[in-house]
């Protein structure tokens, strides 16, 4: 990975994420209180998180692949259905992925 | 960050959203018994410890993605909003260019602006304090502050949660990154599954109605379908369009039903 590129991405993310936090504290309330804006703000993370979950489960670079991660993320999904705490969810994903790989998955 | 554990709380914030400004006065008002400072601090520590620990998963994921120790720690110190950090390192590991990678992280961070809006009314911070308080405006601090019965407790809850989380998140990030370097091949340990599991854990509590599920479904199709054809990092940005698309479609259907009546 190109170090300069990584630092550029970090710099942009730091600036962007700090500014949105600050904007919320500074702007007059009415600006962001419109129902449509609120609904969009609530729905945007849903779309992004869903796409990221899928891509990081099935994607390698620009290829779609089926590997041990699928078993791990399925285990995480099961843990979520069983209302397990956050750390158990992540732990299950890691352990099952490692196990599947050890078995040659 | 703590997006991770704070779902119930985050969900609560979102549920309240339609009631809007009515919230602030209730939370900051005089109603309800004063909570003791130690009860507020206990809330803060509970959330902080649970969430701070997941910084470990971030440290491991970031180091596994190929970021240096300094880069990993800089993210936790300066970005301090977990989902954005995970998204950024995932995009970089996937070969995304700095701009698309940062854009995905930025869009995930925009919800903090809406938390800031709530907190601004509730905490009534003096102007000079806002630039400092801003860095702690995240899911968990908002959840704890909004749960307090008066302004004094809300300020204490915000500060105690922010401080606990900031210290633990950065400490555990460092430990995770060091641990990953010691392990060497993080994929052999299944640690490449930690990122998607974190995202799934953040997402699950948000999928309450058909609107959210439809948005998630379309986003998954766009994200996977476009992955092989568009440059790295771009598909996830396109998939964000699922949100306005679903809202537009719902609005149109609602208007149709109006006219039918």
Describe the model.
Chain A: This is Branched-chain amino acid transporter AzlD. The complex is a heterodimer of chains A (105) and B (261). Chain A is mainly α and 105 residues long. Chain A has five helices and two strands. In chain A, helix 4 (68-81) packs antiparallel against helix 5 (86-102). With 261 residues, chain B is mainly alpha-helical. Chain B has 15 helices and no strands. Chain B has helices spanning 7-16, 23-28, 37-52, 55-64, 69-78, 82-93, 98-109, 111-123, 130-133, 139-146, 151-183, 194-203, 210-226, 234-239, 242-260. Chain B is flat, with a radius of gyration of 20 Å. Chain B starts with 6 loop residues before the first helix and ends with a helix.
Query: How many whole angstroms does the radius of gyration of chain A measure?
Result: 19 Å
Any low-confidence stretches of chain A, pLDDT <50, length ≥5? none
Fraction in beta strands of chain A: under 5%
Strand content of chain B: under 5%
Number of strands of chain B: 0
Structural class of the helices, strands and pairings of chain A?
A: mainly alpha
What is the general shape of chain B?
flat
Coarse morphology of chain A = extended
Helix content of chain B: over 70%
What structural class should be given to the helix and strand makeup of chain B?
mainly alpha
Biggest chain contact: A-B, 75 and 108 residues
Instruction: Provide the domain count of chain B.
Output: 2
Q: Total number of helical segments of chain A?
A: 5
Would you identify the regions of chain B where 5 or more consecutive residues have pLDDT less than 50? 1-32
Mean pLDDT of chain B: 83
What strand order characterises the main sheet of chain A?
A: 1-2
Oligomer: heterodimer
